[in-house]
Amino acid sequence: MNDFHFQSMFKKINLYGLMGILILLMVWELSARWIWQDIQVLPSPIQCMDMAWQVLTAQELLMHIATSLSRILIGFTFAAVIGVGLGIAVGWYQYLGLAFKPILELLRPIPPLAWIPMAIVWFGLGESSKWFVIFLGSFFPIFTNAWRGMVGIPPVILRAAQTMDVKGFELLLKVAIPAALPDIATGLRVAFGLAFGILVAAELIASDSGLGYLIMQSRETSRLGVAIFGILLIGLLSMLADGILARLLKKFVSRGRY
Fold it and tell me: Dihedral through CA 46, CA 47, CA 51, CA 53, nearest 10?
């Protein structure tokens, strides 16, 4: 009964979300055609699709999508591995936390865009500099949430495990990390969304492909409709990717904790 109830609620949420998107598109379409009436200022959704269809072939569009997704996945994967590992270590070993906290507070407020000049100097104009910018934008939410999850473990859980002779590294692997998994999962989801947001900035670095490149090129050639199409496509891909990641993390967290 409970499973059926949650499934029906999920379907209702999806239905309401779809209706909201359709209403927004309808208002946008009517406003663009009847109020603004200027394709150079606000093209309608249909006009954006038509411009993109005229400019891009299916092969070109798939190439831009594949290039951007590969950059996001590589930068995010590095951030996930290093951020989770370092966050667990810093949260578990108190002396590491004391040493890393000033560094974290110093670097965390710096926006990833500020690192682009250094990325070019250190890694050149190739893919590595783009991965680095996406890595930086994704790293801190992952690291911070992993750290918070580790230091926020209720002491009673650790003491209970210790009374059953679970100590040392076994205590970390079997008790502490599983208890911190919800916070780690939250950091991963937040960072994955930020990676999509940083994509356009990362692809400013001497790119000749990718959705960020497509948006900037369309702006420079006064094809606003194509740029808006690219922006919406990034949003759609981000939403789909977040849904997939959320399902994977939910299964992983439930298996890790029980």
Answer: 20
d(CA 59, CA 48) in angstroms, rounded, equals 18
The two three-digit tokens of residue 103, written as one number: 């560094």
The pair of three-digit structure tokens given for residue 23, joined into one six-digit string: 């209403």
The token pair at 208 is 């000749």
Helix, strand, coil percent values for the chain (each to nearest 5):
85, 0, 15
Residues 22 and 102 in one domain: no
Q: Using the 8-state DSSP alphabet, how is residue 224 labeled?
A: H
CATH of the domain at 148: 1.10.3720.10
The answer to whether 116 touches 204, Cβ cutoff 8 Å, is yes
Identify whether residues 66 and 171 lie together within a single domain. Answer: yes
Cβ contacts of residue 248 below 8 Å, gap of 6+?
none
How many folded domains does the chain comprise?
2
Whether 11 and 48 map to the same domain: the answer is no
Read off the pLDDT of residues 175-222 as tens digits, 9 standing for 90 and up: 888 989 999 999 999 999 999 988 888 887 778 888 988 988 887 778
Query: Quick one: DSSP state of residue 115?
Result: G
Find the domain containing 7 and state its range.
1-37
pLDDT 10s digits, 38-72? 777 788 888 888 888 888 888 989 999 999 999 99
Name residues whose C-beta falls within 8 Å of residue 8's C-beta, 6 or more positions apart in sequence.
none
